[in-house]
Amino acid sequence: MKNLFLYLLMACALPAFAKTRLPQFFSHGMVVQQNAEVSIWGTDEPGTIVRVAAGWNDNSTARADEQGKWRLKILTPKAGGPYQIRISGSTEVVINDVLAGEVWFCSGQSNMEMPVIGRMNQPVKGSNEMILNSANDQIRLFTVKKNTSVVPVDDVKGSWFKASPENTGSFSAVAYAYGKKLQQVLNVPVGLMVSSWGGSTVEAWMDQQAITAFSDVKVPAEIDDKRLNRTPSLLYNGMVHPLVGYTIKGCLWYQGENNVVNHWRYQDYFTGMISCWRKNWEQGNFPFYFVQIAPFDYGKNQSGMLRDAQLRVMKSVENTGMAVTTDIGMCNLIHPPEKEVIGDRLAYWALANTYTIKGITYSGPVYKSIHEIKGNRISINFDYAANGLYSASTEDTGFEVAGEDKVFYPARIEIGKKGALVVWSDKVSQPVAVRYAFANCAVGTLFNTAGLPAATFRTDNW
Fold it and tell me: Coil, strand or helix: which one is 119?
């Protein structure tokens, strides 16, 4: 009787297991990266031969291993579609309305999560027009449902949707604005996959191996439910690991507000996270574009230091770019309403560097070096200002200078004919250091002639 019971139990369980299954992001309406060798994977009965037939005439097969897992690669065509993908194993799965185009993975905290429609009492500027004019079946949207895990998981919850007034309002405003700009300019399908969680720290988005590189970061033995989005590795395990291997063109990142409290470690943490993702995706140093956090009243915490750390990441990590927001922050609102502007600025980086469109300016001025110090005046050079600089003010500038005593005073500026910037304060006779937009609520006043704002910077290492 015991043996009979076990046999019946196995017989009942087998049909549930012996079924061809794929993660939820391999589903109707998906976008695959064009002109690439993309991975498709899933589960089936161990030993089953699984065949994938793509509507653009590419086929591939794989055998499910002892755990029932299988993975294979297919070659994708140039942008186009819709296509059908047929997966045949112990059962058959058919995926319809598949497009080939450009796929971007978008992550971060609440400023990435912020939907086009906005939040309660927190607007997104122009949201109504964005939603009204969003019908475009060439833009596909996938949002990963929030999930945490102490171990890496294999799937997420979510579905692909076409951009439309019905669907766009609940999708990430920054990601949508970015994708809209890419689709308009490139005239190809764009797939946007958003995995974000408000209030999260960068440590939560790193895998366990990356975390071990930092002796000051530990994964607690017991997880605090109130800190799920700030616990190391939990968000990576639940919201990134399942998608690793889904072929992408690159990443967008908007995060940092919740790391202002430990800004002195952010450059290392953020660099480690980028390296972790690139290593795990096995796609080389794919493009990674991010947003420098906007001015906001963080109290005693120094957001200027966090923005400075972000700038240092852009300067030191290959194939990265930073969209600057010094001109659109609000001291009483941590979520800048100008989300479409931010999406556009990220798109400029991608269009110029990833898609090699010539003739456009894609970055605001970035501090390069001190040219010279004469008397009480410091002359500064910038990158990304080939056509010069302009400022909204020559007195209330956001610039500060300090002498050897390390005490900073508000400074005035003068823009030279050849684009150099001269900074001085009558209170500092022998200046040695300059800072710009370094206070929590400093308003950006310096731009290049393309209208893109200068990044927060400092010349000192104090």
Answer: strand
